Automatic annotation (TrEMBL):
Protein name as annotated: Prenyltransferase
GO molecular function, one term: prenyltransferase activity
Record carries keyword Transferase: yes
Pfam families, per the entry: PTase_Orf2
Organism: Streptomyces reniochalinae
InterPro entries associated with the record: ABBA, Prenyltransferase_CloQ, PrenylTrfase-like_sf
Origin organism lineage: Bacteria, Bacillati, Actinomycetota, Actinomycetes, Kitasatosporales
Amino acid sequence: MPGTADADVASVYSAIEESAGLIDVTASRDVVWPILTAFEDELADAVIAFRVATNAQHEGDFDARFTLPKEVDPYAVALSKGLLEETDHPIGELLSDIQRLCPIDSFGIDFGVTTGFKKIWVYFPEGEQETLARLTSLASMPRSLADNIDFFTRYGLAEKVDVIGIDYRGRTMNAYLAAPARCFEADTVLEMHRELGLPSPSEQMFNFCERSFGLYTTHNWDSSEIQRMSYGAKTEDPMAFFARLGTKIEHFVKSVPYGVDDPKMVYAAVTSTGEEYYKLQSYYRWRSVSRLNAAYIAARDKESA
């Protein structure tokens, strides 16, 4: 049942180890255990999710993520526990700058079971989305957010930012944007990709986009270009989207024992090199009221009701 999974450190580690094994990834206790113990007081109330990806970049790793209350500063904890190192890069200032500027609902963290602490997610309160105009006022934001403001405005993406994701390992930033319905139509998807200089999606991805609930863009600090545009969908049957996802991923989807009746999240993107890939997320413990990767669900569910 949703919300009933044990969430002490040992139980969560065991579930991570078991789930990662479904795609032949061996979780490192030396990597995972310090992260879980650093935030163990918050695990009892957290939404906890596991994620796999189909692209070569994520080969050999398996991601886990969980929510944190707004009273916990995940970056400060990560630094104090040695999960991240201090840096002079602007990414080191981004979370504190957002905290000073914006009301925050909650946080999330993301880590690889072999690679360690990766990301922090900043969730804005429901109904109080941020605007790109405000966020681009921060000196620590990647310049590509401001340099592409005309693009965001033309497609109706500039006024409602639900979530910011900060990838400390990859040194990128994601902006999760509430989007009008036309942004999921094939013609507009193609138009946006061409305008950004990204490869055209396949027919499978066009079909996926038509069933998506939101999109996010990826930015780095070294370029004025938008690095990637990704789309997300909610489903209880991820395989309904695809003919095949690869043997390991299909095995995970069909075999993961947690959150069987809970929604799954699927994300799709095309890289600048033309690699098309998908991320699938299953919940070890789901809470329908959480903001974890569900920033758009309520609005889109109401539209389709």
